[in-house]
Amino acid sequence: MLDVWLKTGSIFLLILIGAIVRHRGIMDTAFTKRLAVMLTSVFYPALIFSTIVSEFTWGEILDHWILPAGSASIMILGFVIGGIMLPFVSLRDARQRRTFHFQCTMNNYSFLPMMLALLFWDQRGLALVIYSTVGAELVVWTLGAYTLSGQALRLANLKYLLNMPLLAMVAGGMTLGL
């Protein structure tokens, strides 16, 4: 039990260090934005690609289809519940209502779960969480774009499916076939 507390506590310690660094002005808003772009456009896709290539075969990907289906289902359920709850929230501004609906759809589907999986189940757990994000990424860039764009799923919004994390997943999967 102590092991669980230590592993989980280390995650919160990292969050605390980040908050202190930000509070002291070591990381300003501009730096945080650049770091976020680097994380989502370079480091996260590299982690996705290397994990898929090193941890999976096509058979294992097919055997674990429930993971991306499950992450997509969780987000779709959030989307539906958020839509049902919209008439009951006291947000008058349309942008706030769209943001509320988006937040109902979204969850922390990768970064925190990746850290926990790595701590508790090593590289294999991390690989399974990364694979599960395929479904979540698809929902984010379809229903998520739908909610934030004013309740209109436009064909033009589907261009966001061509993002670095999904491209890394496709590239990793294609590499498995070689």
List the helices and strands and how they pair.
Blueprint: H1 2-23, H2 29-55, H3 58-63, H4 66-85, H5 94-105, H6 111-148, H7 164-176
Helix pairs in contact: 1-6, 2-6, 2-7, 4-5, 4-6, 5-6
Task: Briefly characterize the structure.
The protein is 78% helix and 0% strand.
Key descriptive features of the protein:
178 residues, mainly alpha, 78% helix, globular
Helical content (DSSP H or I, runs of 4+):
over 70%
Mean pLDDT: 85
Outline type? globular
Query: How far do the termini sit from each other?
Result: 43 Å
Can you put this structure into words, describing what you see?
This protein has 178 residues and is an all-alpha fold. Helices cover 78% and strands 0% of the residues. The chain contains 7 helices and no strands. The chain has helices spanning 2-23, 29-55, 58-63, 66-85, 94-105, 111-148, 164-176. Helix 2 packs across helix 6 (111-148), helix 2 (29-55) runs parallel beside helix 7 (164-176) and helix 4 (66-85) crosses helix 6. It is globular, with a radius of gyration of 18 Å.
